[in-house]
Amino acid sequence: MNTETIRSRDNALLKQLRRLANDPAAGRELGLVWLEGEHLCRALLARGQLPTVLLRAESAPHWDTAWSLPPSVRRVALADSLLAGVSGLGSSAPVGFLWPLPAAAACQPGRPTVLLDRLQDPGNVGSILRSAAALGIEQVLALKGTAALWAPKVLRAGMGAHFGLRLVEGLHPDDLAGLDLPLLATSSHQGQWLHQAALPWPCAWLFGHEGQGVSPALLAAASHTLRIAQPGGEESLNVAAAAAICLHASAVQRLG
Amino acid sequence: MNTETIRSRDNALLKQLRRLANDPAAGRELGLVWLEGEHLCRALLARGQLPTVLLRAESAPHWDTAWSLPPSVRRVALADSLLAGVSGLGSSAPVGFLWPLPAAAACQPGRPTVLLDRLQDPGNVGSILRSAAALGIEQVLALKGTAALWAPKVLRAGMGAHFGLRLVEGLHPDDLAGLDLPLLATSSHQGQWLHQAALPWPCAWLFGHEGQGVSPALLAAASHTLRIAQPGGEESLNVAAAAAICLHASAVQRLG
What we know:
The structure is a homodimer.
Chain A: E1 3-6, H1 12-22, H2 26-30, E2 32-36, H3 38-46, E3 53-57, E4 74-78, H4 80-85, E5 95-100, E6 113-117, H5 122-134, E7 139-143, H6 152-158, E8 166-171, E9 183-187, E10 192-193, E11 204-208, H7 216-221, E12 224-227, H8 239-255
Parallel strand pairs in A: 1-4, 3-4, 6-7, 6-11, 7-8, 9-11, 9-12, 10-12
Antiparallel strand pairs in A: 2-5, 3-5
Helix pairs in contact in A: 5-6, 5-8
């Protein structure tokens, strides 16, 4: 097993990494995902997937053998200062994988779905992916204008949920025509109370832009509008918090 | 009404702002909160509170008169580039308030409570404050080691929830002795299913460190351990997502 060592800022692989770390759209362009930190790497392996490159800090050689990866996986040691430059986690995560981004999937009709309408915040998007995976959703569809699903911050907040979900992004509302699912939206001021409603399953839960909410056209297409009880008054919920509440309500209703 | 204009990087007020923007602990030290952006400013005024200073971009003079503040409020225009330097929101928020940090409150026994045990991420803390305020919690108690509640990132994620809650921070577990509330904790692998449990009210919901969870001593003191159903498999939930689910469950159970 050979380990290459990179100590030059101008190395081609390092340049790729830098783009992946800094540009949310680079993953799709390069066809690569930068999975940083032990947790994400372990989550990938748990799905039976292999990286193409194992990258670790020069000072942390034990990672070369930590997971019994086959010899076909390229091992690269990066000078610690260079790794810090492509890290969103800092020194706590001296290891990461490069993994080929899965080919763009197609929407699957009739499967439990979350639909994201122009969500901006990568932390919110990642948290919703994580809740979706935990609560029995199979696919997440992101309309054009939503944060890039494979961006490092979304991956970090997703904590491995990406690997268990069918992810489709860059969609236009017209692409949803064949989805064949009741569309559930939340509203802060109208609709049936979520905790009293009979929720269809499978369904597609719709979550919208942090400031503007779901677009009026999509809202009009919803078969159910649900309202989350907020006895604390006029305050609103963060969209990822609202999503967790809705997805949990769906989950426990079908558990009976 | 007079407006001062600041164009020097060395201005004393600007130096204070810079500390408040960059050091999460500065708020408590200076006894000041930096509320950035229209939404937070409006939320403060909605509670009948007044700022001591209105700060706005030099290019946005309409903010001087936007809220009919009394003349006693000091008006300061900051050169746009200087305001950008103390902004977490960028050019989208050319206005903010300086507001005197409320004196440290004492725990109130018997009131609906959220208890934070060493939560690290300011976004999570802010999101939980927001859910707490919306879902009928009255006070949030933060144990030593939790992110500073009045830090800019927590304020931003809280979206005004801070002004509707009794906030107590820097607590030691011993300080909870007189709380006189059943303590509810979540667990990923044991306890009663949340959606089947009879939940006491008022109560104190306990949420712990993102990686380590609630400390064993506190967990042992909990009167109820609840488990959130996760039919998606072994994935876990983000702590703010779990908090939203638990607080919503409490809220709808007492709504009946």
